[in-house]
Amino acid sequence: MSAVLPAPTVTRRLALAWFSLGLTALGLSAMFAVILVVARTPFLGQGAGLFRTALVLHVNLAVLVWFLSMAAAIWILSGDIRGNVGWPAFWLAALGSAAMVASGFSQQALPLLANYVPLLDHELFMAGLASFALGIGIAAAAGLAVWHRRPPTTLHLAAGAAMMALAVAAVVLVTGFMAGTATPTGVQIGIDDRLWGVGHSLQFVHVLLLMGAWTALGEAALETTPRLRRLLPWLILGTLLPAAGGALLAMMHGPGTVEYRNGFTELMRWGSWPAPLLFAAGLAIGLLRVGRHRRLNADELGLALSLFLFAAGCLLGANIRGESLAVPAHYHGTVGAITLAYMLWLRRIGVDLGVASDARSLRLPSIYGLGIICLVAGLAVAGELGVPRKATHADLGVDSTAYFATMGAAGIGGFLALVAVAGYAVLTAAGLLEALSPRKPGARRDLRLPAIVLALTLVIGGGLLLDRMPGGNNEKLATEAHVQEMKLKEINTRFQQGLVMLHARQYDHALTAFHRVLQLSPAMPEAYVNAGFALIGMKRFREAHDFFEGATALRVRQVNAYYGLAIALEGMHELPAAIAAMETYLHLTKADDPYRRKAEAAIWEWREALRDKP
User: Fold this and answer.
1) Which tens digits make up the pLDDT trace of 359-385?
2) What is the rounded CA–CA span in Å between residue 118 and residue 197?
3) How many alpha carbons lie under 13 Å from residue 340 in its C-beta half-sphere?
4) How far apart (Å, rounded) are the C-alpha atoms in residues 184 and 257?
5) Domain edges within the chain
6) Do the Cβ atoms of 393 and 40 come closer than 8 Å?
7) Angle subtended at Cα 140 by Cα 198 and Cα 152, rounded to the nearest 5 degrees
8) CATH number assigned to the domain covering 481-612
């Protein structure tokens, strides 16, 4: 059976353009992921200065641009969207993606490691993100407008449900940014608060399309489980309904409130995985039945790895405790499952659309899946050891045998996955370019030269990009002593100004000073801590919480960060977490610390408040 519905030439070219954008994002995300793997691998431990900028760009390219470009192409094919709407949407998304990547060149772009949608604090990045979101929104709206014209196959239903889930995410996004500057209790609303709901809502879009990909890849398995095929529309509906609940939640509670944050967390925790996991179990049974009669082909083996990764990611997510590497182990499992399914699905779609397939790419998705399994296993065990997330090897200073073994395994798995992704992106992109370029009927171009050119572009262009990014080699290898001296002098001056303003309770001026320090020295935990205390003075507890967490990610034993984190959590009305943070402060601080008695009194008061709570 075809992996997509038949499409006319105009629609086909538009879909191929979206696929090309997604593949470019996938290749660039792999380039930035190299920095993450190198910085976290004990045997290497380099690239810490680039780590956070690379993390922001990797997540946005791998999860937003790659996933949603694939989604847009599927919507175009399932709805037969024509070029007068589809091409403007594509160019908005493509130019927005380019702007996001280009913002990484600026030394003024400060990484904001917000959950689900990390950002670079730079006008070009924000404008690019808005442009990409608008392009995706137009593609989805156009798809919904003509969705009823096509026959209601299960693949078509999954695509339509994903478009509806994206419409819900758009409602959540708009309501989040229409809210005021503070919650009813006076807590300042930060950017993470405004993006919290839409970040969770997008997970439903991804899992709905994942079920569509599994449907296309698991046709033989579905033939052996007819009841599962009949159940599938209900499983799609069972995933869409909780997604729709996000719009209601966003209208009832504003961003920054405990109800808003916990509501979206619980909605995703209990609404996004049951139906896909049940579908995955049924497909696994079907694959076992197919395997009794013949050997599974490369797509079916890759499908089995995707099912396993998704189940492992869900299991790890249910056991997360705290901000350790168990968190990235969870989302690398689920995100890896989607990426693997999309890699397989895109190759199948390409064949249906007349794209030349390179035999060398057949095993690359499975190699990617094995690498991700190794990465997830290493991160999961490291999470059990208490290794914090968002930190590099150089930041941690850990030298235990268990740490080296687990993070070494994660590094090896990460490199294996990156090699597979890079090879897949180059070979598949070459085929897409061949399909998009005009040629005489029956003519066939040699794909080896385009593949070589694309590979060189990724390597050389990527190297130039990294060399010019903040913290890159150009900064480290600067030989002019007076430049470094002036930079250090400004850091010291700004830091001291910030301290003076903080003690004078001029919190806005203090925050401006520490923000400049972090632009010049983004790996300075003391600046994160003092910026956090300035935000507490402004009653912006949620943002203060993120800055204190940033300090502990940079330096695990940054004692005063745990004190500030506890105060921020109290302001957020999360007393159990505040007690845990303050207990960590007491565990790390010296016996003669002047704030120790205040910390003990705060813990006693918070415990009493919890006891009195009905």
Assistant:
1) 556 778 889 999 999 989 988 887 777
2) 14
3) 32
4) 8
5) 9-475, 481-612
6) yes
7) 115
8) 1.25.40.10
